[in-house]
Amino acid sequence: MKDRVSLILLTSNEIDGCKKIIPMIPKKGIDEFICVDFNSTDGTREYLKKMGYKVFVQKRRGRGIAFRIGMKKAKGDMLIYFSPDGNEDPKDIPKLIEKIKDGYDMVIASRFHPKSVSEDATFVRRFGNWMFTSLINLFWGANVTDAVNGFRAIKKEVMKNLKTSAKYFEIEIEMTIKCSKKGYKITEIPTIEARRISGKGKLNTFRDGWLYTKFIFEQLFRD
Description:
two-stranded parallel ribbon
């Protein structure tokens, strides 16, 4: 019996990105299309419902909360987290699926792999990603180039076993750290990060950078 694949969209007022990106998402190999939406007022929810997505309303702000809602609502054995803002390339979705089928527990679409290109990362963001990824590699042996990107695939059983608690953007580094701690097999694929189609990014470089730093050092003193 083949594993079922759930694609989980994370949205908040992304109607322009959705209209361009959703038609580009390959349907082959994906068994379930769902969306976790926070506070959209621009027609994002209505558009996705029309496109056949199951839409779940997120009442409390937080990317980590959205990740867990997606996990709980998804019926698939494999979860793919994807944001339709233009940064993430839908052509990479089958590559993530294939790597999980090859036996990996989590696969990250890396924006900073030697074969990757990021058209959206500023110098500060590049440095921050390098610093946080280097710390995670040093402390937990993750051996990745992009511990922070949310565009990733993970086995649902693994996601459950991680017992994540992060509320905000630190969810991605929590998943990377805990997968490494627990000995799960992690790999990456190179990706092209294009510029956002419209709207403003939700991540605040300095606020969330401090959150990442605090979270990483807290994890050093936990089992």
